[in-house]
Amino acid sequence: MGLWKQVSRRWGRVGAIAVIALLCLKLLACTSLGNSTGKPPVEVTLAAFVVTRTVHEQLIPKFVAQWQREHQQQVTFSRSYGGSGSQTRAVVDGLDADVVHLALALDTERLQKAGLIQPGWEREFPDQSIVSKSVVALVTRPGNPKQIRDWSDLAKPGITLVTADPKTSGVARWNFLALWNGAIQAGADTAQATEFMRNVYNNVPALTRDAREATDVFSKQERIDALINYENEVILSAQKGMPLNYTIPRVNISIDNPIAIVDRNVQKHGNREVAEAYVRYLYTPEAQTVFAQLGFRPVDAQVAQQFASQFPHVEKLATAQTYGGWQKIQKRFFADGAIFDQIRTQIGK
């Protein structure tokens, strides 16, 4: 007996039409969720530090369309954005991230230490798995009334500035390192550099929890003369119609943001192929162009050349490796009782 006759006998003509229509809708839904090759949909979870949100929100749809076109498979992304340290703790505590894009390698190394990422992650992708870069900018009031142009100006009496707490913010650790590097490159020894840092942080009324909060404080409190922030954040602010007065110090630090696959989670989810493909996509000229358009210094040499006029030249550019890598930096500057704690105690903050 045909389907129509079976359904008609049980449900009547009108009921049969409704039942068959429902079956057709379910078939259509299954077809749209799957694909002609029978590949099931796949989901990837991204955990990234917050300033990369605009980049991923533009690139994920492009990658999803490309993957659908080339592999006839639907990919969806779950996204989580926050401070780099907070994201790291969330993944350690159970956030099922498959890809992590963090502010500094130290946080990725913490995931390795927790057994979530295999050793050697930095060799899995180009440029030691650094996928985005920036430098530190000094943001000042319109017309720069306090004439703040370089690191040394931040230590002068009468200057007030805002930056985040290096204990809670990855961005703030880069800021601290940029200040320290500025002093060392100017000829200071360790004692003199520490004294310089003490004077700078003494000019900070209160350390904020993260970089975004520091930006908010600067925008709302006109008594603050300067803000230390990522160059890309300043460029993005201008693109949003809120141009800022800023300077890129000629002695600076390369803010290198790594990306990595969370091995334990992709193994559990069975989505390593797609997760790795997304990371590789981020290194393509197409993706690196989007990074550059949104203010990040590209890691692709040709794209960097194309956007060279957008980014001021830095005469002396140090890296984390200049100071021995993040493990040594952490121990020397940010561990309990290290240089930053000593400075904080001395200035009573």
Q: Can you give a write-up of this model?
A:
With 349 residues, the chain is α/β, with parallel strands linked by helices. Helix content is 48%, strand content 15%. The protein contains 14 helices and 11 strands. The strands form 3 sheets. It has a 5-stranded mixed sheet with strand order 2-1-3-10-4. The chain has a 4-stranded mixed sheet with strand order 6-7-5-8. Strands 9-11 form a two-stranded parallel sheet. β1, α2 and β2 form a beta-alpha-beta unit. α2 (53-71) packs across α10. The radius of gyration is 25 Å and the shape is globular.
Fold topology:
Elements: H1 3-33, E1 42-49, H2 53-71, E2 75-82, H3 84-92, E3 99-101, H4 105-113, E4 130-134, E5 136-140, E6 161-162, H5 170-185, H6 190-202, H7 211-220, E7 226-230, H8 231-239, E8 245-247, E9 251-253, E10 255-261, H9 263-269, H10 272-282, H11 285-293, H12 301-306, E11 316-318, H13 326-334, H14 339-347
Parallel strand pairs: 1-2, 1-3, 6-7, 9-11
Antiparallel strand pairs: 3-10, 4-10, 5-7, 5-8
